[in-house]
Amino acid sequence: MPGSELTLASPGPDAATAAAFEALLAAVTEARPKDDLGPIRKAWEFAAQYHSGQLRVSGEPYLIHPLAVARILAEMKMDVVSIETGLLHDVVEDTSVTVADVLKHFGDEVASCVDGVTKLSKINFFSAEDRQAESYRKMLLAMTKDVRVIIVKLADRLHNMRTLGCLNEERRERIAKETLEIYAPIAHRLGMGKVRGELEDLAFQYLDPDAWADISHTIDNQRAANEEYLERMRRTVESELRREGVPARVEARVKRAYSVYQKLKKQKISLDQVYDLMALRIITDSVKNCYGALGVIHNEWRPIPGRIKDFIAIPRPNLYQSLHTSVVGPEGKHFEIQIRTEEMHRIAEEGIAAHWKYKEGRRGVQDDQRVAWLRQLVEWQQEMRDPGEFMSTLKVDLYPEEVYCFTPKGRVIALPAQASPVDFAYAVHTQVGTTCVGAKVNSRIVPLRYELQNGDVVDILTQTGHEPSKDWLSFVKTSRAKNKIKHIINANERERAIEIGQKYLEKEARRLGVQLARIQKNDLERVAAEYGLSKVEDLYASLGYGKFSARQVLQKSAPEQIAEEPVVVPAPYDPTAVSRKDDDAVITVHGVDDVMVYRAKCCNPIKGEAIVGYVTRGKGIAVHSKTCSNVQNLMYDSERKIEVDWARHASDSFPVRIVVHTDDRPGLLHQLTSILSDEKTNVRSLEAKTDISQTSDSALVEMTVDVRDKKQLEKLCSAMRRISGVRDVERIVNL
Ligand code: MN
Fold it and tell me: What is the pLDDT, as a whole number, of residue 368?
């Protein structure tokens, strides 16, 4: 906003701005007499030098703006760093100054605050629906490491709103809307009632001038008409309280236009139906006296049932505390009364800023107290009925569990922390996720596993026809992305299985001399139904996955064409084979549940090794080590390869044969077996023999041991290799 307000004119601060600066110093001294004005002077000179000659749209020197912002902060009794930040908040945005320059001249606290305010200014809040506005607000808070950044930003916005009249209608409306949707709610959440009220009324004035004029007019009239009445009430309350020994200050107040407007909308009533435009506020010294005052009031006037609210016992989420009651006053007029302590009053008006300003000294102390304050909010939230917005928002700060990023068009996408561009892509649209081939973050290409940061602008690069990669599953964080990726991979594998199944059936039919063309479609449907499948396609898929053989299918669908089932030759006894059922539990096949799996005998893969599956005909899926020569020699159809993995939680062990070549010396065997027992390895068999093919001083030890995985095997082998006299340790795979 300020960036485009600038034009160039004569240099140097004029007398008016110089006087405004002196007034600022006076305000700082009044609010915080002990504060050092040196850094503030320095920041002023710096800002004056760089903003020199710049003008606001109103024609005033630009410097008026940072001065006014600093002044608002001084009146909030904010610390020196905040005042310096107020003076410098636009230098990075609007002049040649960099954050590094600010750091050099003003230190890291001021530099990081100025940087924070600058970043917030760069966010382009597109006119947003409610859901988006909520995300913006969350993001704004999430991006802020230091609450002072938000407070300075609110002061900045407050001054811009006060001087909004100078802008053209379109910009006025946009800024007013943004103020109402984003900044006023943030002020509210931070408990800054005064700032919130002013922001709302200013925004309301520009967004709905007619309604605003109507309501303001009515309020003014009522005030004029009721001035005497109000004053009489005030005095009565004051003297009643005095008589009861409750020290108190009593203020008459008029409701704000925007809050009246909201009441009209919420209760669907017209302006003349609002009775309590006027109200009293009692400020006393202790909680006890708050309740005392309430008693005095109720003794004097009849309370309206259902209108007594105890926000002292149950504070609002933003820490607001007060007693509220409405009574029927003299002449039957309804009347709202708020009762609170000085401390509660300060917090209601200033919110988080009230907590800020009484802290002096070291930064660590301030941060601790701020965090304590936020934590308290979070704790309260857990007791609240509406586990709302505000707390979860501030929680972002304390427990960073979400990250907020933008589309190039400025839409906010909220994701879990450590989300990747792929998560982002799927959050935008399934199609964007599916065809995602790369990503740019803040205009730079990043890897797809990049960890997104708050405020990142993410541009997803897509390519029609591209499909998700299985690797993505290892880094995506959202379940949406996970499910969509899995879905596509499953669909692809099923498609492949259908194809394989169809070919398998055709080949088998040729081999057996069955004319597939003569088998009716409804015959295949019937067979499918026999297997509990609803479609012929499912039958093909099952064939492809190796759940049953093509021969069986042919026999069932055309029994007259195939005479009898050939004799099944049982597999030879295999000492390393575990039962198929066990292998089903230790290996998962991508995209398929419920399929027979067995580890190939040729390479006997163990957990932790890279493996690949091969769809056999009728025997399920054979799992080989990726380094198995059978796989490598392309003995198999590459089409029938299928992705498999070790099941994550499988705890089975695998028998492995190991041959150890050693020197032939006494004691060595004992050393080997003690390693096996150290590693708690179960030994199935162990045999030592002299290697007859070698010279007489060498020996061989052959053993079959149970290992959990590749890692354990490697550990075992390297421990054996370290024994002096061991020449080599070899794993025997081809049994
Ligand atoms: Mn500004």
Answer: 43
Query: Do residues 341 and 290 lie in contact, with contact meaning Cβ atoms separated by under 8 Å?
Result: yes
d(Cα 644, Cα 631) in Å, to the nearest integer? 14
Query: How do strand 302-303 and strand 278-284 relate by DSSP bridges?
Result: unpaired
Contact 697, 710 (CB under 8 A): no
Instruction: Note if the pTM is more than 0.70.
Output: no
Active site residue 30: no
**290 within 8 A of 339, measured Cβ to Cβ:** yes
Q: Yes or no: say if 729 and 717 are a contact pair by the CB < 8 Å rule.
A: yes
CA 138 to centroid of ligand 1, rounded, Å? 21
310 phi/psi in degrees, rounded to 5? -105, 90
Alpha carbon separation from 661 to 544, 666, 702, 734 (Å, rounded): 44, 14, 9, 18
Note if 75 is an active site residue.
no
CA-based diameter of the chain, in Å?
122
CA torsion angle 607 610 616 619 (round to 10): 0
Structure tokens at 461: 């690069």
SS (H, E, C) 386-427: CCCHHHHHHHHHHCCCEEEEECCCCCEEEEECCCCHHHHHHH
pLDDT, residue 701, reads: 83
How does 436-452 read in b/e, with b if 16+ C-beta sit within 10 Å? beebbbeeeebebebeb
Torsion angles phi and psi, residue 615, rounded to 5: -80, 110
- Please identify every stretch of the chain with a pLDDT value under 70, giving residue numbers as ranges: 1-13, 124-145, 273-276, 317, 354-401, 562-585, 591-595, 617-619, 632-639, 649-651, 690-696, 734-735
Q: Give 107-114's long-range contacts (Cβ < 8 A, gap of 24+).
A: 109/81, 109/363, 110/39, 110/43, 110/81, 110/84, 110/85, 112/145, 112/146, 113/81, 113/82, 113/85, 113/146, 113/148, 113/149, 113/152, 114/85, 114/88, 114/89
Residue reference for tokens 């920041």: 43
- Cα 452 to middle of ligand 1, angstroms: 28
**The token pair that represents 25 in the structure block:** 């110093």
Please report the pLDDT score of residue 64 as a whole number. 92
Helix H or strand E encompassing 702: strand 698-707
Distance 693 CA to ligand 1 centre (A): 89
CA dist., res. 253 & res. 276, Å (int): 11
Per-residue model confidence (pLDDT) at position 103: 94
Cα 62 to middle of ligand 1, angstroms: 10
Kindly give the distance from the C-alpha atom of residue 66 to the centroid of ligand 1, in angstroms, as a whole number: 6
Q: Quick one: which of 84, 67, 65, 78 has its CA closest to 22?
A: 67
Size (the chain), residues: 735
Q: Which residues pair with 439 in a beta bridge?
A: 446, 460
- Give 1 Cα–ligand 1 centroid separation in angstroms: 8
Catalytic choice (5, 79, 84, 94): 94
In this structure, what token pair is assigned to residue 149? 């950044």
User: Could you give the dihedral angle defined by the CA atoms of residues 522, 524, 525 and 531, in that order, rounded to the nearest 10 degrees?
Assistant: 150
**pLDDT per position as a tens digit, 28-45:** 999 888 888 999 999 999
- Give the count of beta carbons closer than 10 Å to the beta carbon of residue 39: 18
- Helices and strands of the chain, counted as H and E runs: 28, 23
**Contact in structure between 475 and 521 (CB atoms under 8 Å):** no
Chain center to CA of 456: 13
The backbone torsions φ and ψ at residue 403, rounded to the nearest 5 degrees and listed phi first, read -135, 140
CB 610 within 8 A of CB 471: no
What are residue 463's phi and psi, to 5 degrees? -145, 125
Convert 603-625 to b/e letters by CB count within 10 Å (16 or more is b).
bbbbbbbebbbbbbbbebbbbbb
Q: Is 153 helix (H, G, I), strand (E, B) or coil?
A: helix
CA distance 734 to 605: 11
Question: Catalytic: which of 75, 93, 285, 645?
Answer: 93
Write the pLDDT tens digit of every residue in 540-569. 888 877 777 788 888 888 777 765 544 343
pLDDT of residue 141: 63
Cα gap 277→600, rounded to integer Å: 85
Per the CB < 8 A criterion, the answer to whether 495 and 524 are in contact is no
